[in-house]
Design brief:
With 135 residues, this protein is α+β, with helices and mostly antiparallel strands. 42% of the residues lie in helices and 26% in strands. It has a 5-stranded antiparallel sheet, with helices on both faces. It is globular.
């Protein structure tokens, strides 16, 4: 197990209701490290990593942001990407935040029993531990 995987395991162990934690490189969409309490198969975790990259850096989101800037009369690429996302699925919360100047995203998946505010607080609390490990 690599250092990033170990850090992700610490996150899962520290957060009440955590199911998984991972780091995704936003340039490549590759998984830098992951720990899942239920050990999901590698193709699934790789697909999730690609979806995270698309969510934060995909062409559709970029196009929407450009349209909003144009509508507001803001020129240039002042804020080209999102920084945080929260997705609710049938049984889970997915907390995502860019780190390392937007190079990567840390993803925390919890059960829906986790308090949303606490999920965000815990995710942000572990960033200083995980961020230095991003290449």
């Amino acid at each position: 197990m690599g250092r990033i995987d170990e850090a992700c395991k610490e996150v899962v162990d520290r957060v009440d209701g955590a199911a998984a934690c991972g780091l995704v490189d936003l340039d490549t969409g590759k998984l830098l490290g992951v720990h899942s309490a239920s050990q999901h198969p590698q193709p699934l975790t790789e697909a999730v990593a690609a979806a995270v990259k698309d969510l934060f850096r995909g062409p559709n989101f970029g196009r929407i942001q450009q349209m909003v800037r144009s509508h507001r009369g803001v020129s240039g690429d002042t804020e080209p990407h999102s920084h945080e996302a929260h997705i609710t699925s049938a049984g889970n919360f997915h907390f995502m935040k860019t780190i390392k100047g937007g190079q990567a995203v840390i993803v925390l998946v919890t059960r829906k029993t986790t308090n949303i505010g606490m999920g965000w607080a815990m995710l942000k609390a572990v960033i200083p531990t995980v961020e230095p490990l991003v290449p």
